[in-house]
## 1
Amino acid sequence: MAVKNDMHVLVLGGGVLGVSSALELTKRGAKVTLLTEAALCSGASGRSLSWLNSAGERSKPYHALRMAGIDRYRTLFAADPTRDWLRFDGGLCWPANDVAGTQTRHAYEKAHGYDSHLITPATVAQVDKGVDPQAMAEEAIFNPGEGWVSLPHLIAHLSGQFRALGGEIIEHAGKASVIAEQGRAKGIRYDKGEIAADAVLVACGPWTPDVVAPLGVTLPNGSPVSMLVITEASDQPLKTVLNTPRAAVRPNPGKRYALDHDWYENDIKLQADGTYQIEESVVAQLAQEASKLLRAGTPLKAESWKLGLKPIPGDGDPVLGELEKVPGCFVAFTHSGATLALIVGELLADEIVTGEKHPMLAAFRAERFG
């Protein structure tokens, strides 16, 4: 139930970070208007593998934030375990011919309490009978606490709550810019005019650095092109998220699978109109690579695919919180938008409404770039 305050906040971005933050702001009593250039979930959130994890090596603050993010998803899952768009059936990962690297990563994960187990082809059926043991490396890592979410479904869920609490969504708003007066954010300007506000949150995925650049803020942008493939309905029984040398695979609602990787990055071509294209044969090859990972059954076939930039800050870590150069302007720019969406929305909403900086975001301020 929302409380009431007099603050008006504008959120730029219709992806999961923007929608989550908008909902949390509304719960805290703010009047919130969310603007998105096109439709909700038409950008990076619509083409995310959305694997919920904190696997591998990263800084302690980043790991803590990701674990808090997973915790919020577990709360959402517990509220309705029958949802087919949010599951916690674990993740299975192996690199190409690198047993020593696998063991080193496993030891690293165990050292900071991350649930991590070494799996072999002989034991893989104990964690997922859908994986073909002949496709595996000599050893793999199974992380049973990991899961996945379908971001289009999550965004529909969150935006429904947002609207029910009185939040306003303006879709197909076109390009928008932040209005700053005397060094402070005062609103936004877009195709249909200007909207004044007490604070602005920029959550525009890979375009976030471009939006804040006119304000004199430089955010290094390492966003690469990427592709997410959704398969046709399949009889394959895979439950876990797979990350392997030639394909990443996760279940998707409707007995489908979501696929991605990076080996075909150079095959994605930028068109004159700003869109991206890839040969259908490359899409089919990714589906074939994913099919090799699964036990005998109907081979996976691509039903649809989306192409575009994957948001990654220049140093790989999230950029979160208020800009010191432009008080009243906040940013949310991260590669791990799926894992962090719920917790970041919560923490940013608290900061915006109270003006108090949250310690969990201290390592992720834009000012680290100087």
## 2
Amino acid sequence: MSAETLALPTRRRRRGGDLANRLRPLGVIAVAVVMLLALAALLAPLIAPYDPTIGSVVQRYRAPGPEHLLGTDQSGRDLLSRLLYGARTSLMGAAVVVLLAGAGGTVLALVATWFGGRVDAFVGRVLDLLFAFPNLLLAILVVAVFGTGLAQATVALAVAYVPYTARVLRSVALRERRLAYVQAAELQGLSGVVVTTRHLLPNIAPQILTGAAINFGYAMIDLAALSYLGLGVQAPTADWGLMVSQGQDSLLQGHPQQSLLAGTCIVVAVAAFSVIGERLGGRRAGGRA
């Protein structure tokens, strides 16, 4: 039996045992909240009582009641329906940002770790260059060039999140790179691709998940900010950030429901993902510091 096969199962069992302890009890509540939001987004076409984009002037600013459980907005659209459909764009956009940034950051971190030397230095300079652009500023620049929309905003934010992911994963991968099981695999003649994908990647996976969970919340905030500024999701599509923006005038007229409800959904979702990330990692090591 080879040295690395002895080391890896032991490490994974220990991490797996810690996972259950870290998730309880607040983490369980956070997971339940995330699952509830995901189900609401997935089942929105089935459970939403009204079309989220169609309203009626005579239904403007209806108070919560049997016909409209959460009331209506300034255009007479049902707020519950818009919140349910808004969960789809808010969660989907953040998920795309996290997936793209996680994939790009992981690849850069593993390449820099394995080859080292000039490759590591080059990757470091690329990351430093990306660090020079604040997330929202980069997204605004991309939107200014390619036009407004959710797709442009998510791609821009994904690029901006890559250095945060790569920086943390590189430090973790460097520590793993120096351990005996990697050296044993190299002595057996395994290629760098095999060692990286079979051994390094599985052992930094917990850190990848931790950073993804925390960055999911940050991505939701940034995407909501872009929609608030009119650069992300466009009306009449339902989106939580856009609803906060559209509810400003109503707020001044004494109808705070739209902004208040959408803002609450964002806060709850971000808090839940942050708790999950902290429980998975034990600390905020994977987030944007």
